[in-house]
Specification:
Elements (H helix, E strand, L loop, with lengths): L16 H22 L1 E2 L1 H5 L1 H9 L7 E4 L6 H5 L38 H15 L5 E6 L6 H10 L7 E7 L10 H10 L8 H9 L10 H14 L5 H5 L3 E7 L3 H13 L3 E7 L7 H5 L6 E2 L20 H15 L3 E5 L3 H4 L2 H6 L4 E3 L4 H13 L3 E7 H4 L3 H9 L6 E5 L16 H6 L5 E3 L4 H13 L4 E4 L24 E4 L4 E5 L3 H14 L4 E5 L2 E3 L3 H11 L2 E8 L4 H11 L6 E6 L9 H8 L3 H12 L3
Parallel strand pairs: 2-3, 3-4, 4-6, 5-6, 8-9, 8-10, 10-11, 11-13, 12-13, 15-16, 15-18, 18-19
Antiparallel strand pairs: 1-7, 12-17, 14-16
Length: 628
Amino acid sequence: MLLSELSHPNDLHGLTVSQLEEIACQIRERHLQVVSTSGGHLGPGLGVVELTLALYQTLDLDFDKVVWDVGHQGYPHKLITGRFNEFDSLRQKNGVAGYLKRSESKFDHFGAGHASTSISAALGMAIARDRKGENYKCVAVIGDGALTGGMALEAINHAGHLPNTPLVVILNDNDMSISPPVGALSSYLNKVRLSPPLQFLSDSVQESVKNIPLIGKDIPEELKNIKGSVRRLAVPKVGAVFEELGFTYMGPIDGHDIGNLINTFNAAHRLKKPVLVHVVTTKGKGYPYAEADQVGYHAQSAFDLTTGKSIPSKKPKPVSYSKIFGQTLLKICEQDSKVIGITAAMATGTGLDILQRNIPDQYVDVGIAEQHAVTLAAGMSCDGLKPVVAIYSTFLQRAFDQLIHDVGIQNLPVSFVLDRAGIVGADGPTHQGQYDISYMRSIPNFVLMAPKDESELQRMLVTSINHKGPTALRIPRGSGLGVAVMDEGWEPLNIGEAEIIEKGDDVLIIAYGSMVASAIETSKILNENKIKSCIVNARFVKPIDKNLIIPLASRIKKVVTMEEGTLIGGFGSAVVELFNDNEVNIPVYRIGIPDVLVDHASPDQSKEKLGLMPDQMADKIIEKFKLK
């Protein structure tokens, strides 16, 4: 059978192991061909091809439910659930999403763009199934990196307390998150990998006991515990932890042996209780470059399949904001041993990998545990350290409670750097950093800022670390503007002080962060129409510079705000509140992201759809204030 001929995952039923192995080769070939052309996640999906095929061989996908943790390991799943022909459109506008998406396929039972959700969701489905008196199977597939997330451990704790609720958790253990996982759980799983596979002795023990003379079929109560006791002897010592938590443990299993996987999954389904199947896989399996560099090939832009090298951009791009941040923080750490960089399994993405390599004693990776990262930093600051917590905007949302209770209320000097703030592109709604302005504005004691360029980023980082209270600095994804940066000697900013970029009397444009550059381009278009703009780089949304903004607004009387974030509760709302609190009755036109989800597409495509391109904003401003 050809992969392209699969119209339904149940078509896998009845295929031999050798036929499934041929399908596996075709999945890898298609996966590599598409990702090398358009970019996307590579290593995670390549590692679970056999696991996916074996699992689906044991399920009826018209009824049974599989929840994939994160979803970036779900490319093989997509290829055998009706999206083979459309797979070329992966992560492109109106194309196949890079993560599971309930609205895209009936086989995508739960969508998620962040880790550690699968066991909770699958357990919820299992409880719903049992309450309805139905009989479908519920399976969660979770990576060892995601197992470091507190939510996964909370779900295991709950599921283990429900011995009569059938649930299969498949631990896809490739000894990797995006980067190598950290902590005691990672060390624990390393020990399990070296243990011999579990021999299933309990059933044969029960049969042997039944054959003892004078006992027969009715096993006395005092001997019933023999089954469990002998079973624990069969479980590798470290695997017994899962057993003590209420799960039946199976493993470790070779994640690329389809026949063994099928037998193990069938055995797990028969147990009708919480079961954890420990499957050991190789991230990037089948593509030597991805196997050799599992961090670099976690996700890739377009690359040459033959050499494994990225296809260079037609014109050189400036250094990314993340790298500028990492380089600047490294220099600060070299000069101050109290400064500590903290990340949640995102060293490379946030630019902290340079600190990790050069001063590992001033670098902390807590794993996929954003809540812990925030409160850990709070504890450090209580005893005199200067923590700098670098987390993606979309992932910091998980630690909202800790931001309020553990940092804001106590007014602790913790610096937060929110990477990937604003529109991020092909990863879609789960990854857009559009909410941080809104959710951070409401927290007491926080100073919120965003730079207009790379140079201002450096000054803001110094300002944050020097401040005696909590700060949040948002930076966009991708390349900077090409502005020259300094190696050291950065001058801090005055908290709450904005700056005038251009002078004009027809309209006042107050822009925040990445939108300052767009405001300048918009002003050029307005100038072609004989409309002179006054442009203010707000720098800070909290506190906002009322001493500069109110007099300008009172004179010009036409105000536009620009932000790369949601309008509800955002920067524009802060300006409106400022005017209202000071009884300034001036019209404000807010430009930003409306109350919509931003789907996967390139950043410029998303901005065009939202009306955030300079020519579109210029037209809106002219129409709004009737400037023609």
